[in-house]
Amino acid sequence: MHPAHRRAAAARGRVRRLFAEAVQAVQRPERTRLRLELVFSPGNAGLQVPAGILTDGDYQLRARAEDDTAVSGWLPWCSFRVDTSTSVPTPGVPDALRISTGPYAGFQQCADGPVMATGDSVTFAANPTPYGSPHPDQSATFEIGHPGEDPLIRRTEPVWPSGYVFGIGVGPGTLSPGSYQFRVQAIDGTLTSDWSLWCAFTVTS
Q1: Burial of 11 (C-beta count, 10 Å sphere; 0-12/13-18/19+)
Q2: Rounded-to-integer distance, Cα 16 and Cα 101, Å
Q3: CATH number of the domain that residue 42 is part of
Q4: What pLDDT was estimated at residue 28?
Q5: Residue pair 120/130 in contact by the 8 Å Cβ criterion
Q6: Do 115 and 199 lie in a common domain?
Q7: Total number of domains in the chain
Q8: What is d(CA 192, CA 186) in angstroms, rounded to the nearest whole number?
Q9: What residues contact residue 31 under an 8 Å CB cut-off, 6+ apart?
Q10: Which residues contact 148 (CB under 8 A, 6 or more apart)?
Q11: I need a surface site. Which of 13, 49, 77, 148 has the fewest CB within 10 A?
Q12: Are 194 and 200 in contact (CB under 8 A)?
């Protein structure tokens, strides 16, 4: 073991700083070099690089420790790759918002100005996008309320088993007569889509 390594290891409890350095593996003048100083936690140390600092490409990482009396040598380089092409894309904005007032009633499209009675058992639905393939890992948040007011209902539900439909049910008597609107936002893990446009509808007595 290098003497400096031994001194730093023996004085583990006194280590004050850990330095880490990452550089692009490609040898070119403009290659990225990042050097950070971290506070050492006995027996454990980590490095978190802010998003956007390392662009796609091959990199090398090395580290060294330092206390009040000694500085270790650098550890051997560790190679790694940054590749954002496999990142989960932001969910598409839900589309085709619609309303059904019963299991055999079919769906009313927003463009037709849906109407329901306060005693109906209502299903609010929308489609995840893009079209053409299921979205089994997504869920959706529905907001329902009067225009210009805070939502009366805000509920998040997983996509239906088919992976092609978002939907929630609202029981009879939940909504009193009046003018309403609803909108939908898709969720995939920690990522969310923009909200859909509002879909206006009317509840009668």
Answers
A1: middle
A2: 67
A3: 2.60.40.10
A4: 47
A5: no
A6: yes
A7: 2
A8: 6
A9: 23, 24
A10: none
A11: 148
A12: no
Q: Do both 107 and 190 map to the same domain?
A: yes
Residue 103, CA atoms < 13 Å, CB-side half-sphere: 0
Tokens 């239906």, located at residue: 160
Q: Are residues 79 and 30 in the same domain?
A: yes
Please tell me whether residues 99 and 181 are part of one structural domain: yes
Q: Of 44, 32, 170, which is closest to residue 101 (Cα–Cα)?
A: 170
**What pLDDT, in 10s, does the model give residues 150-184?**
999 999 999 999 999 999 999 999 999 999 999 99
Domain boundary among 54, 86, 118: 86
Q: 159, 135 in Cβ contact below 8 A? A: yes
169: containing domain: 95-204
Strands 191-192 vs 178-188: parallel, antiparallel or unpaired: antiparallel
Dihedral (CA of 69, 75, 81, 86) sign: negative
Note if the pTM is more than 0.70.
Answer: no
pLDDT tens track for 46-89: 667 777 777 788 888 888 777 778 888 888 888 888 877 766 78
